[in-house]
Amino acid sequence: MKRVTIKDVALEAGVSLAAVSRVFTNTAGSSARMREKVQKAAKDLGYRPSMLAKGLVGQRTNLITLVSGRMADPFDALFLDRLSERLAQLKMRLLLASSALQGPNESGFFQALDYQSDAVIVSAGTMSLDHSSACVRNGLPVLLMGRIVEQPGVDCALADNRNGARMAAELLLRTGCSRLGYLGRGGETFSDRERFKGFADALSGSGTDLKRYALKGSPDNENVFRTANTILSDKHRPDGIFCSSDSLAFGVIEAARALGISIPDDFSVIGFNNVPQAGWRSFQLTTIDLSVNHCIETAIELLNRRLENSERCPLIRRIPVELVVRGTTRQIPAGGKES
Description:
The chain is an alpha/beta fold and 339 residues long. It has three domains: 6-49, lambda repressor-like DNA-binding domains (434 Repressor (Amino-terminal Domain), Orthogonal Bundle), CATH 1.10.260.40; 63-160 and 292-319, Response regulator (Rossmann fold), CATH 3.40.50; 161-290, Rossmann fold (3-Layer(aba) Sandwich), CATH 3.40.50.2300. It contains twelve helices and twelve strands. It has helices spanning 6-13, 17-24, 32-45, 51-56, 74-89, 108-114, 129-137, 161-174, 190-203, 221-233, 246-258, 292-308, and strands at residues 63-68, 93-98, 119-122, 142-145, 154-159, 179-184, 209-214, 240-243, 268-273, 286-289, 316-319, 322-324. Strands 2-1-3-4-5-11 form a six-stranded parallel beta sheet, with helices on both faces. Helix 7 links the parallel strand 3 (119-122) and strand 4 (142-145).
């Protein structure tokens, strides 16, 4: 079937191409009668104006590009889903670009430029400074989610990682854990580094042993389970572990169960993010809650500020977190009484 074009709309409405263009780009000079005639013709033909075409004539396209990794973590998928819904409410659309594309002209940043996006959000753990600079030079606002890069024209929004890690450390100490572990990605991401640093700093001076464990390779469930199984099979295993994400904590819980280790009597687990699965009966994971909705509203606020004034100083927003206590940590301090 032949695609309906602006020429078809003009022919159906009996007006010029320029008249149709003025209606769909909200350009002055279109009377109410003209708009009604053109819009009726478009509706009858099933025509929708191209946002890209509108962008080419200097209008905002209402397209936002999200540059993301492979979304192995449930939090990333939830962020994508909620962001798409929120942008739709604001009459905007989301374009997804993969950070895995590494060719010289294939970066997600360049896809954002190619499709005339109004802004780009980067939720991938790594990024090229050269690529972000290219976007800024072309007038494309860049927002980093989950990390900080001090660069003109680039705003940042991320969790209060260190405070969350501190709350995790204090809970484990308060409930009697004395041999603690941290399971992350070996400092591969900015958030992982901050969470470990916050956890270690909170334990400093407590006399508590701390061992850092790193997941090697893919963060898929099977690999996490194998890593956790190795950690918990050691005779010097920790009696409490803080994981840099809920998805890692789920693997630890499954490994503990497979080894017959009682949670939380003999072993405590804390995650980070509070994805919906954390509250499932099969996990009941104690975790640090990072509100997806708060992340999205913060992102939209920063984007709007940048679009209103592209020359303003970069902003960094720390998104507050909360401790959510469930069944993978002891509820009563060791030697204490129930309140």
